[in-house]
Amino acid sequence: MSSSPVSEVFDAYHRWYYDTKVWETVEFLGVPSLKSVADMWNYQEILAALKPALVVEFGTRFGGAALYFSVIGRALNPALRVISVDISHVDVYPLARTDPGIHLMTCSSTDPGIAANILAYRKAMPGPAFFILDSDHRKAHVLAELELLRGVTRSGDYLVVEDGNINGNPVLPGWGEGPFEAVVAYREKYPQDYRHDQAREEKFGFTFAPGGFLVRQ
């Protein structure tokens, strides 16, 4: 990683944004999204360029991100659907729960049945897809999600692996291996699967998903 004065400024801001828990107060239409606002702006630019038929989110929590993807995505493609997967949806806000574009799947994001469900959606809704991983941040779990999606993603699809910023990248040093390390391990095993979209990742100076902006080849 660069150690230029500019990058040091962005890292300092990143640590402030994370350590003060500003990200926990970020909302979309009143529903917590728990994200970097810079990343959220980046995501809508990706959606505008990709024009996906389907968005798949691993990790729902309050539903703010799912609602964001549904509202923005359907402005671009009224037929778009969002699949949001989590082991529990008890915390999902009513506005997200009742949104007609969101389908909540209650199970582990590493359940093999998820792949079959996504493939069924893809058959019914042809076109590119946008995937975002934001559930259990342990390396083994994220790696299992990436392996599961290997048979689901297609050339041109976009994948974002969030929270690679933990474990000292640059926040929460000592947390342990997480999403960033999972992406590194996956790309070492399957170097031809994804292209790292570095320009997109660096556009706003910092991201919660370092190394995690990926385009399926």
Descriptive terms for the model:
Rossmann fold, 217 residues, two-stranded antiparallel sheet, alpha/beta
Biggest sheet statistics: 7 strands, mixed
| Stretches with pLDDT under 50, minimum 5 residues | none
Please, what is the average pLDDT? 97
Given helix and strand content, the structural type is alpha/beta
Helix content: 40-55%
Which percent range describes the beta-strand content? 15-25%
Instruction: Record the strand order, biggest sheet.
Output: 5-4-3-6-7-9-8
CATH superfamily: Vaccinia Virus protein VP39
Q: State the name of the first-level CATH class.
A: Alpha Beta
CATH architecture: 3-Layer(aba) Sandwich
Number of strands: 9
Please report the distance between the alpha carbons of the first and last residues: 25 Å
The number of helical runs is: 8
Task: State the domain count.
Answer: 1
Element-by-element helix/strand order: HEEHEHEHEHEHEHEHE
- Shape, please? globular
Radius of gyration: 16 Å
Tell me the CATH topology.
Rossmann fold
